[in-house]
Amino acid sequence: MVLDTYEPRDATETLDLARVNAAIDAGDPWSRDLPLHVTASALVVDPARRRVLLRWHARMACWLQVGGHGDPGETDPWAIALREAVEETGLTDLAALTPALDRRPVQVVVVPVPAGRGEPAHEHADVRYLLATGHPDAIRAEHNDAVVRWFTFAESRTEVTEANLLDFLDRAEAGLDTEVLT
Fold it and tell me: Which residue would you say has higher pLDDT here, 85 or 28?
């Protein structure tokens, strides 16, 4: 799988990666019936203006990256993150932020999800990527409850409260200045 060569950056990410790999080894890690299941997401970046696109997540009542669950039969986290990003932003030119990041995860994190919409509390093992667009003005929300908005990196840090997402923003901003995130 894509995570075989992934290098975690700290002890927390090492533990999260181990939990994801255990879920993969146990069977279908994409099944929403499991208390821990794999999801895929991405931060979309406007490299020319050094901005990041965030989506208002009504259920969580906060700004998050785009992404979500695989559809039945999907098992490639890159393809899932890309599909979800196109659906949620309307941007059809999305590609890896740099050639070195093509199909390469930038972060792996396990996040808690509270109960809601008939689902019990569970966890997402999220595989995260960095995508870029050359047409940032073409954004359109998937629906009225899922507003998408460009933020500078500084602005995004005032809107985001989750430590793992703040770290993801740091990695994205660093990705603008380097060919490969290390």
Answer: 85
Whole-number Å distance between alpha carbons of 78 and 127: 8
Please report which confidence band the pLDDT of residue 1 belongs to, taking 50, 70 and 90 as the band edges: low
Please report which helix (H) or strand (E) contains residue 12, including its range: helix 11-26
CA of 134: how far to CAs of 7, 50, 51, 92, 111, in Å? 29, 12, 12, 10, 30
* Rounded Cα gap, residues 134 and 41, in angstroms: 19
Q: Select from 174, 155, 160, 8 the least CA-distant residue to 100.
A: 174
Question: How would DSSP label each residue in 106-175?
Answer: SEEEEEEE--BTTB-SEEEEEEEEEEE-S-GGG---SSTTS-EEEEEHHHHHHH---HHHHHHHHHHHHH
Q: Tell me the pLDDT tens digit for each residue of 51-81.
A: 999 999 888 889 999 999 988 888 899 999 9
Domains of the chain: 12-177 (3.90.79.10)
Write the DSSP symbol of residue 64. E
Give 148's strand partners. Answer: 55
| Cα distance between residue 86 and residue 3, in whole Å | 23
Dihedral of alpha carbons 156, 158, 161, 163, sign: positive
What does pTM read for this prediction? 0.93
